[in-house]
Amino acid sequence: MPASMRPGRRREVLVAHALLAPALLLVLGVLAYPVAWEAWISLTSFAARAERPAFVGLANYRAMLADPFFWRALATTVVYFAATTAAKLALGLAMALLLARPARGRALVFLAVFLPWAYPGGVTVVAWYWMLNPPLITSYSVPVGNLKHAVDGLLGGGAYAFASVMLFNIWRGASFTAVFLLAGLNAIPTELFEYARLEERSAWRRFRHVTVPLLRPFLALAVFLSFTGAFADLANVWMLTGGRIVFPVIGTYAYWLGVRSGDLAAAAAWSLSLVPLLALALVVLFRWFDPPREEPA
Amino acid sequence: MAQVLMKDLNKKYDEVHAVKDVNLHIRDKEFIVLVGPSGCGKSTTLRMVAGLEEITSGEIVIGDRVVNDLPPKDRDIAMVFQNYALYPHMTVYDNMAFGLKMRKFPRAEIEKRVREAAEILGIQDLLKRKPRQLSGGQRQRVAVGRAIVRHPQVFLFDEPLSNLDAKLRVQMRVELKRLHDRLETTAIYVTHDQVEAMTLGDRVVVMKDGWVQQVGEPLELYSRPANRFVAGFIGSPAMNFVDVAIAESNGALWAETPGLRIRVPGEQSERLRRYAGQRVTLGVRPEDLRVATTADPPEYAFDSVVEVVEPLGAEMLLDVRAGAHGMVVRVDPSVRVKVHEKVRLALDPARLHFFDLATEAAI
């Protein structure tokens, strides 16, 4: 603080710092510290059973990259992300476009669309689990059991569980995507769509040349949310597969390593392996989908 | 070359009857303005011409085609929206080219038309910019340019100047008029601003509650309003209205109310005779009132008290009270009056308006 500063001004600066302090503490304590700590232990031999963790440099990362299981988990994660994101965007956009037009009973349809997202995940995941893996012998469980065996027989063990995880993610995420994109659509002035109607009859071409470009920032954000969701999706995968993970995603395997096996350092390395990917995705998405800037006129 | 016909045009929503039995014949090359307060049905009418609203009943003809069932794109119209409706993700050039691209015009033709329109509007240097980099006036020009490049049979304007500040609005108003003179394309223009309507329109259509109140040339609406609504809507400050009793005395008709006793001029007394003993509304425009001189006949003069003086530079407005009636008077700024002062006013007998109290129609 320069000495020439008048006392009133100095007080204002102090007050500003004081007001910022809680937010700063929150960011440092809840975000920066854990991440930094995780980054640090990934460079050590930190483990549940280790007496004294030693600094091991990049050994954990080297081991991870040499592990064929890692590449399989990464591939699974990418497939999981790509397939669910594509499906969520398609379904979500379709639902948003349908809901954007005024119609009788729209509020009820909106509620139905929103419900999968609004309902507690823990409850719905159990419902899905029972639906896909009926716990009791009924006339329903027979065809579902047959389906499970058919899918697993065709695509290998665990395929049914993996498909059910994707299905659940799409079911829940499409709901969120629809509501999100509907908000985006509603934020676009109606004249922009009306003008397109004056110039083009084909709904498909209007969609391609006007709706999609106008929705681009919202689509980008939806993709990003789906992206982070898929990479960090632990609970749903875990609960739907009961931990019997044949197709692990990075998140579940990191959990397995850290919590089940106590190999915390390796688990940290696994989780952090996603950070460069996420950062890259973020950069690419925001390059592609130039976010709207406020008008300087 | 296109005329536009509206025949018994109606628009009903679930609860609202927005446009009622509109019949209009818009001539080729005519600039017609639909004007009225919000909710009067003017925009809905325009949007039915554009094809953005379905027609409940009636018929719209553009050129010699009934367009009721034609999609907007095939109606050969171009519309300018109040909010300009420019695409934020496209450059000015692409915005202007959009309609032509969608219609699969050859690239060279698109380029030629866009350059031509840009030149007319003086926006050649802005073609590579995005709308967000433009000022309100520039956006407005792009929106107009987007309509021009289409070479449509009819231009539709939906309150195109309402989002501009007052100064720019006046400037763009002149430019639009010049543009119409140059392009000679039939234009339908919707506004709530009676000044825009009067200055731009070859003819003006005044609407209220879905009904057409009057169709006429601007000065016709001003000097011979069909009813009390049009009389009050056209002209600024608005016409003064006073409810008066019509009384006959010594063969002459008098319009009377406490504080005011005006002789009904000869040419109007024929029509007013049947109202003798009844009440009617007397209308007199602020500009048809003046400070009386001794030369003014007493039967067209009355006393008033000045309540507010509004000096506007080129003119001065006096809010006065005559008996129980408030009135606005437009006088020369050189007139020396003070608030609370008594002033004797005279009115122009040739410019009095009378309206039926019940139907509000001009008598």
Largest sheet of chain B: 6 strands, mixed
Query: What is the rounded Rg of chain A?
Result: 24 Å
Strand tally of chain B is 20
The number of helices of chain B is 9
Contiguous helical run count of chain A? 13
- Beta content of chain B comes to 25-35%
Count of DSSP strands of chain A: 0
Oligomer: heterodimer
Radius of gyration of chain B: 25 Å
* Average pLDDT, all residues of chain A: 84
Low-confidence segments of chain A: none
Account of the protein in words:
- The complex is a heterodimer of chains A (297) and B (363).
- Chain A is built from 13 helices and no strands.
- Chain A has 297 residues and is mostly helical.
- In chain A, α7 (159-187) packs antiparallel against α10 (235-241).
- Chain B is of the alpha+beta class and 363 residues long.
- In chain B, 25% of the residues lie in helices and 34% in strands.
- Chain B has helices spanning 42-50, 92-102, 107-121, 136-148, 166-183, 194-200, 218-223, 228-233, 266-272; strands at 4-12, 17-26, 31-35, 57-62, 65-66, 77-80, 154-158, 186-191, 203-208, 211-216, 240-249, 252-257, 260-263, 279-284, 289-291, 301-311, 316-322, 325-331, 342-347, 353-356.
- A six-stranded mixed beta sheet of chain B has the order 6-7-8-3-9-10, sandwiched between helices. Chain B has a five-stranded antiparallel beta sheet with strand order 13-12-11-14-20. A five-stranded antiparallel beta sheet of chain B has the order 15-19-16-17-18, with no helix packed on it.
- In chain B, β7 (154-158), α5 and β8 (186-191) form a beta-alpha-beta unit.
- The longest helix of chain B is centred in the middle third of the chain and has 18 residues, at 166-183.
- Chain B is elongated.
- The A-B interface holds A 189, 191-192, 194-195, 197-201, 205, 209-210, 213-214, 216, 290, 292-293, 295-297 and B 50-52, 71-74, 77-79, 81-85, 87-90, 98-99, 102-103, 132-136.
